[in-house]
Amino acid sequence: MDLARQIDGILPYLKVFETPGFSFGHFVNKPGTFGWFDFSEQAGAFESDLYRYGWVQPFDWTTTWLDEFSKYVNDPAMVESADVETIRQLLTMHARAERFGEGQLCVMYESGHLTALLRRLKAIREGQI
After folding, report:
1. Which sequence spans correspond to the domains of the chain?
2. Neighbour tally for 115: CB within 10 Å
3. Cα(28)–Cα(47) distance, rounded to whole angstroms?
């Protein structure tokens, strides 16, 4: 799949995420069960589309990239100059972390990080492809 199609596959979520009042979902805690995160319809589609459009790729994120990951999450200005491969690695880490700890994608949405990644992809798409 070419890069333009990959970007175009998830770029519509920028508008969704920037919509006032948008909810990524919520935690469900019912007595007698383990709690879980219930994605909104659009957030669930976003997670699926990360896989569908090839944004989640295998790489050794558990040992070799954790420090780099933290830098991008904690310093929004770094995202403004991130290249596509860095964005792919960040999205891979978020998607993989969601499997280990439900709600990771929501936390990254609420912090503004996912929206910043999509804004950066939009700038790349408009300027370089």
Report:
1. 3-128
2. 19
3. 18
The amino acid that residue 122 corresponds to is K
pTM of the full predicted structure? 0.91
pLDDT of 129 over the 70 cut? no
What span, in angstroms and rounded, lies between the C-alpha atoms of 99 and 95?
7
What b-and-e string marks burial along 38-74, b requiring 16 or more CB atoms within 10 Å of the CB? ebeebbebbbebbeebebbeeeebeeebeeebeebbe
Are residues 72 and 78 in contact, defined by beta-carbon separation less than 8 angstroms? yes
The whole-angstrom separation of Cα 68 and Cα 57 is 17
Q: What is the pLDDT of residues 61-84, one digit of tens each?
A: 667 777 888 899 999 899 999 999
